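Design a sequence for this backbone.
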């Protein structure tokens, strides 16, 4: 793992991520999702990244990864239903995915 990735792991703050996402959500969704729900969904996002090999440091080329957000949202919905965590629509999950991506951009995690 490169030094950059080690630095990235140190600056990622789970509580700050949840707060950022909660702020990013439209008002009508702020009450629907608990902090635990948001943490669970973010964990599923990173499970998806891991399953696709996005979190490994042995990539060739410039390291740019194109994430299929529809596939990611489907993965989160499927696993949330399987785990009995909740019934969320694709649109609702997409807001959390976008919020997490925006949080990562705000801390330059993927640069």
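Sequence:
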């Amino acid at each position: 793992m490169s030094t950059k990735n080690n630095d990235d792991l140190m600056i990622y703050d789970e509580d700050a991520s949840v707060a950022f996402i909660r702020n990013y959500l439209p008002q009508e969704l702020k009450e629907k999702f608990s902090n635990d729900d948001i943490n669970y969904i973010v964990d599923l996002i990173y499970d998806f990244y891991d399953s696709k090999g996005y979190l490994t440091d042995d990539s060739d080329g410039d390291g740019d990864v194109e994430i299929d957000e529809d596939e990611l949202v489907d993965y989160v919905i499927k696993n949330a239903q399987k785990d009995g965590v909740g019934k969320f629509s694709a649109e609702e999950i997409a807001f959390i995915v976008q919020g997490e991506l925006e949080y990562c951009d705000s801390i330059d995690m993927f640069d």
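Residues 1-5 have pLDDT under 50 and may be disordered.
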